[in-house]
Specification:
- There is one protein chain.
- The protein has 60 residues and is mostly beta strands.
- The chain has one domain.
- 0% of the residues lie in helices and 62% in strands.
- The protein is built from no helices and five strands.
- The protein has a three-stranded antiparallel beta sheet, with no helix packed on it. A two-stranded antiparallel sheet has the order 1-2.
- It holds the Pfam family Zn_ribbon_21.
- This is Cysteine-rich CPXCG.
- It comes from Arenibacter troitsensis.
Length: 60
């Protein structure tokens, strides 16, 4: 697993998520551990290296 730190798009607090580098590309929704709002997460790995990461609000 790969721990990645980023800012929540709602509360702007720094949070972290565990990412699975065995999956080359995935998009999913996970709640912020601080404000509990849903974050759309897209991650792309190439040969185990994180090459793209995006965390955005889901536009409610």
């Amino acid at each position: 697993m790969y721990e990645h730190f980023f800012q929540c798009p709602y509360c702007w607090e720094e949070i972290s998520m565990l990412l699975d580098p065995s999956i080359s590309k995935q998009t999913y929704v996970e709640d912020c551990e601080v404000c509990c709002n849903p974050i759309s997460v897209t991650q792309v790995f190439n040969e185990g290296e994180l090459i793209a990461f995006e965390a955005s609000d889901i536009g409610q």
